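Bump. Still looking for Protein lplB structure tokens.
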Amino acid sequence: MASKVQAMDGVGYKARPGRGMLSYMWKFRTLYFISIPGIIYFFIFKYIPLFGSVIAFQDYNIFQGIMGSKWVGLAHFEKMFAHYDFLRILKNTLLIGLYDLIFAFPAPIILALLLNELRVIVYKRVLQTVVYMPHFLSWVIVSGIAIGILSPSTGIVNQFLSWLGFEPIYFLGEDSYIRSILIGAGMWRDSGYGTIIYLAALAGINPDLYEAAEVDGANRWRQTISITLPSLMPTIVILFLMHIGKFLDFGIERVLVFLNPLNIVNGEILDTYIYKAGLLGQQYSYTTAIGLFNSIVGLTLIVVGNMLSKKATGEGLY
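Sorry for the wait, here they are.
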């Protein structure tokens, strides 16, 4: 029948034959108008710069530009894998990304679950504010705090070790500690802020489920395992997939402020190497090739992770 409803969205809007997508967009025109500044931002600062990635296949010269620079094919990618330091830097990036995934990603979930158990609302709000306030500190300030705490002479950590009878440790002067410091500083700064999303998801869980569980004799731990975590799973999966998408993109500002000649062997990552070789060394094509490699790995991880997630949990990013 011509009058038969062809499609219906989640809010009850029925799309008539012939009207299609334009009619749907017009009905929700206010939302689309609101999104225009964001679309323009991503188009100008995210999508248009993608065309500049072609210099990874050129011997780029800033005076000749993209159109005048010589094409060299995959020469920069060959140079990247042949570089004597590249495998070490890639290993550092992979290990730091893996540690961040193992320790930092679950931290907001655990913190949100703990905050959700607080029954005194005022205390809960105050504590939540305190734990997410470090997120608004710059990495320069965070590194200054960490350096002060870990100082071998005046730091509180070494004072405690001295009280226990141990020798002071120069944490930022040894390769073996830099990865732990980077992960620990990131957890302290961002875990509290990350709980906001999970607390919002927790607020959407039907309270009747907990009441029914209490009637059946389930304690708080059992309720968390059987109700809370399954209800949080869609949110966890989406954030996990977004996290692995930036697996190799740890952030230059987060690492650069902690690096020094004594810990650079285990602390240097792709982002800091790109900064030094690209901006300071003016090797634009070479570092663009590294950045392109980084992006391809991230895209591959998202696609593979999304496929595995859909098969395992039925949830995915797209």
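The radius of gyration is 25 Å.

Edit: fixed formatting.
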